[in-house]
Design goal:
CATH topology: Glutaredoxin
Low-confidence stretches: none
Strand order of the largest sheet: 2-1-3-4
Number of domains: 1
Mean pLDDT: 95
Structural class: alpha+beta
Distance between the termini: 10 Å
CATH architecture: 3-Layer(aba) Sandwich
Length: about 200
């Protein structure tokens, strides 16, 4: 079995949507253990002197990104609807993922949130939407939400974001294998190759 692959993702990240939909199967096929790592891009961008998504700060880059995401989704057979608000707040979803990284349902939850945001244009910053998504994947939302919003749950996401900064993660999606950083959806296969060879 290969070295574990850490998948650092942010629910507002367009390219993380592409990775999230395929990473679980890709890791299983490669025999590479997957570690889900939820974090927030806002503090990471802030540490780089940015006050918004670079896709909003640089309109030409943003226009290209939306065209590219639509093209990539078509290539992967993924539904896509440009969100009416971007980037959407994802604090509660990120806290849930950070507080339940080892839960057997975390992959299903992550994919459900990305699908809601980038395929259905649902407002993932709305607590009721997140509760509904938890119910839709067969969970009782109340205890999951309680764990994520308790002081201990909030601290987990805060620490994860601090760790991302300390380890040089500067964007999402990022993959870390044995200390080596790979950034971008198009680097997933390279990260998997590194994990198998390690």
């Amino acid at each position: 079995m290969g070295k574990p692959l850490e998948f650092w993702f942010e629910f507002a990240s367009t390219y993380s949507y592409l990775s999230a939909t395929r990473i679980e199967d890709a890791c299983a096929e490669a025999g590479v253990p997957l570690i889900w790592r939820s974090f927030l891009l806002g503090p990471v961008f802030g540490a780089q002197g940015m006050t918004d998504s670079p896709f909003n700060m640089f309109p030409v880059k943003g226009a290209y990104m939306w065209t590219d995401i639509a093209r990539c989704c078509s290539d992967l057979g993924l539904p896509f609807a440009k969100p009416s608000s971007f980037p959407r707040g994802s604090l509660l979803a990120a806290r849930i993922a950070a507080a339940h990284l080892d839960a057997p349902w975390v992959g299903a939850f992550v994919r459900a949130v990305y699908h809601a945001n980038f395929a259905e244009d649902r407002d993932i910053s709305d607590d009721d939407v997140i509760a509904t998504l938890l119910n839709e994947i067969g969970l009782d939302a109340a205890p999951v939400l309680a764990a994520a919003t308790a002081p201990e749950g909030k601290a987990l996401l805060r620490r994860a974001t601090e760790e991302a900064l300390e380890r040089g993660v500067f964007g999402a999606p990022s993959f870390v294998v044995d200390g080596a950083l790979f950034w971008g959806n198009d680097r997933l296969e390279q990260a998997l190759d590194h994990a198998r060879a390690s």
